[in-house]
From TrEMBL:
Signal sequence extent: none
Pfam family, one: DHFR_1
Listed name of the protein: dihydrofolate reductase
GO biological process: dihydrofolate metabolic process; folic acid metabolic process; one-carbon metabolic process; tetrahydrofolate biosynthetic process
Record's keyword terms, sorted: NADP, One-carbon metabolism, Oxidoreductase
Amino acid sequence: MNIEGEEMRKPIRLIAAACSDMGIGKNGQLPWCLPKEFQFFLDTITAVSAPEKKNLLVWGRISWFSCPETVFPLANCLNLVLSRKMSAVPPHAHYLCKDFGSVIHLASKPPLCHIVETIWVLGGPEVYKESLEHPWCDLIYLTDIMADFDCNVFFPKFDRNVFRKQKGFPGVPDEIHEENGIQFQFQVFKKEA
Ligand SMILES: NC(=O)c1ccc[n+]([C@@H]2O[C@H](COP(=O)([O-])OP(=O)(O)OC[C@H]3O[C@@H](n4cnc5c(N)ncnc54)[C@H](OP(=O)(O)O)[C@@H]3O)[C@@H](O)[C@H]2O)c1
């Protein structure tokens, strides 16, 4: 493990699905219904390397409340909701933070630093943007939804010379999938050192 001063560095990873124009949401909901894509999302964020480890999931308030309650509890996960105005941790969540800096502090210092494996950033755009700029951010899992959808929320622009598209990334199928007549492909972008 890489310890910087009293901080234990944790990988920060983003996961999202975006359509042709990088749209990710419409009126607080996902614009599509792709159960296999959603299952890949769940499998990815719940994967840990040892039974005592947990992933810290970071949700913007609107994304949190738009997630179907039936997915909870999520195995191997601690749920953290970001909000400047909420005052109580909502049902199914474990933590509430007012800013991204507090998320990093919580995950990288005792006691949580001993169990947190990965900080998964689940959106929306504000926290995606902030995490993309963080030096600990190393991977973006971004499903390419190969279709046009009417969206009003978009994945932030990122530098594809810094985050390079990977081929044959472990655990991520390369082929094009199709569900409900919509094609999609899982992609991983890795930050070049
Ligand atoms: N396709 C995908 O992969 C994907 C993934 C995620 C979300 N989405 C979609 O995106 C939409 C949700 O995005 P959104 O932009 O509307 O909302 P959001 O980012 O989920 O939530 C916004 C709220 O979260 C809080 N927040 C966000 N960043 C913060 C920060 N850095 N510090 C403190 N608080 C922060 C604030 O809450 P307060 O107002 O309470 O202060 C803010 O108003 C939905 O349509 C959802 O379905 C899609």
